[in-house]
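go over whats below:
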Amino acid sequence: MKFRFVVVDDTSFIREIIKNIGESLGGVCVGEGENGRDAVAIVKKTLPDLLFLDLVMPVKNGLEVLEELKQIWPDLKIVACSTLDQDHIVEDALSKGVNQYLTKPFSKNDIELVIDKLILARKDQNHV
C-alpha cells in the first residue's frame, strides 16, 4: 500500500534511516528537511499522509511546527522523534496533536510499528 511521507530532522543519518524504512514498507518519501521552516514548507507543498518530525531543531522547533501544521491540516499524522523523553514534553506534544512519540534511539521495528498503526492499518480498514 503506497503512502506519502516527509522526514524532518536536523541529523541527516536519522532522516536516511527513517526514509529507508518507510520506503521498504511501500512508502514514498516526498520531502526531507533539516529545520522547522523546512517542515512547514515541505508539508504545505506535498500534503503527505505522514510526517516524522524531530522536536529539537534549529530555526523553529518541532512543537511550534506541530501547532502550525495542525491548524493548517488537522488530519496530518505526525510522529515526533526526539531524544527528549521527559513526561511533560511527551504530554505537551501529544496534547498538541502528535499521533505517536518515539524516543531516540529508536529501532527499525519501532518505525515499522508506527507506520503500521497510523497508515497501513488505517488504509486496510478503509477497504473492508
DSSP finds five helices and five strands in the chain. The two ends are 14 Å apart (CA to CA). The chain has a mean pLDDT of 88. The helical segments are 12-24, 36-46, 62-72, 87-95, 108-126.
